[in-house]
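During the second half of the funding period, the structural biology subgroup turned its attention to how the target accommodates small molecules. The most pressing case was magnesium ion, which had performed well in the primary screen but for which no bound structure existed. We therefore specified the complex as follows and requested a full 3D prediction, including the ligand pose.
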Amino acid sequence: MGRIQVLSDELANKIAAGEVVERPASVVKELLENSLDAAATDLRIDIEAGGRRLIRIADNGVGMLRDDALLAFERHATSKIRMAGDLFHIATLGFRGEALPSIASVSRLTLEARSAEEEVGSVVEVAGGKIIRYEDLALARGATVAVRDLFYNVPARRKFLRSEQTEMAHIASLVTHYSLAHPDKGFELRHGGAELLRAAPVQTLRERVYQVFGARILEDLIDLGMMEREIPGAIDEEGAQEPPVRFHLSGFVSRPQVRKTNRNSIFLFVNRRLIRDRLLLHALSAAYHNLIPPDCYPFALLFLDCAPEEVDVNVHPAKTEVRFTRGPFVHDFVRDAIRDVLTKSRPVSSVPVRSAPQPAAELPFSDFSERMRSARFDTGAVEEFAPPLTEEQRRELPEFVLRPHQSPAPRLDFGSASIAVDNTLPPAPERLKLRVPDTWRIPEGGSAGRSAEHGGAGRFAPAGAIAGFLHHRRLARRVVDYRPARGA
Ligand SMILES: Nc1ncnc2c1ncn2[C@@H]1O[C@H](COP(=O)(O)OP(=O)(O)OP(=O)(O)O)[C@@H](O)[C@H]1O
Ligand SMILES: [Mg+2]
């Protein structure tokens, strides 16, 4: 007898559960996806003890025929694909026919379901992968799956479960974001009877974002609208051009001032499937390049939609990864679309423009500032009363007298007279009289405060005269020179 043997279905299901059911949130994900595939419009999720004790999801979808309710627990039993070709254009979230048997192999699971075509529904109870009850029951249309005692028969997995709050946070985040992907459906999440989320069906994603996050978060987000880019279709074997392929991007991204320390606020959906994808993450960070620091992350809720054949979802057992047929195109489309929106809504435009002028800076309180306040500066009046001066008036102008500076005491003292410094001043130059041209007389009642400050002479020198004065002063300074005495 050979050494190889085929594993039992029970064992195979447990192995599959190792990949598919990592923690309570993975169960919620699989059950939610089943309900969404069943076209449910109302989803109610009840959790107890962070999902360890109970995860129950009730929906109003198409439900199951009585025969199907049993078949659903067979390995690789699915209603979503039929042949190999279907794998290349999967339009549903599930397709592997693995989730229910995997979950049932590591928990005590009860399924209640009725389809619209049948009067009676059925109840199936499975524990550790074994069917222990199957009976007919009068039920409303739809399906309810209750998963109790998760990992009760896999102690190694149970040990790795985190605290109730942590597991619940994962579940809440997942439900919240699936609710964002389906605004037209109603979601309700309860933990231990307490309501955590209730989102009634709405028409737009914006309304759902408001329901889930509230107005304050919405203010920090930019609506991408519906962005589209198409790529020309390939030429087929007969030389005919195939129709163009269209990609759509919608959702919300945060303004650059929102900075997260990890990627937990980035939610990427491809054809409404929640995924983790490096290519899209890279495109997102490239869009924010230089807008936020390299070790910070934005909030992003991105929905990329395209034809199912453009994306391979059969990459990972948990269906959380995808591969794009035209990866570089998708990358650049997402990067450019987000970058465009970020550039157009720069923070400046979001700052409300003040209609009232801002008050001028106040001078600190002082005698000067007080005088400035009481003075009347009427430039019109100055122009009006500024006729050219007569010769007599010019003669009355004040004289500017330049005096050479007193030389300061020598700063260097070497303690001996070895370096003699000649401190004697050259003779003072003749008193230099400056005639100031174009000086205006300010009439009484004009700039009274100003003229009083200038010695009450009622005159002041214009800028040109002051420049001349400074020029002469510089000349006079040259005369004062500190030179060692000759021969020292
Ligand atoms: N809530 C539901 N309402 C109606 N039918 C359901 C529901 N949940 C499961 N089913 C049926 O049970 C089948 C098996 O579900 P299961 O989740 O195991 O596999 P799947 O969804 O087909 O693929 P996957 O393993 O990728 O999730 C589904 O194909 C579907 O026909
Ligand atoms: Mg499924």
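Two results from this model are relevant to the next phase. Residues 9-202 form a domain with the Heat Shock Protein 90 fold (CATH 3.30.565.10). The longest strand covers residues 245-254.
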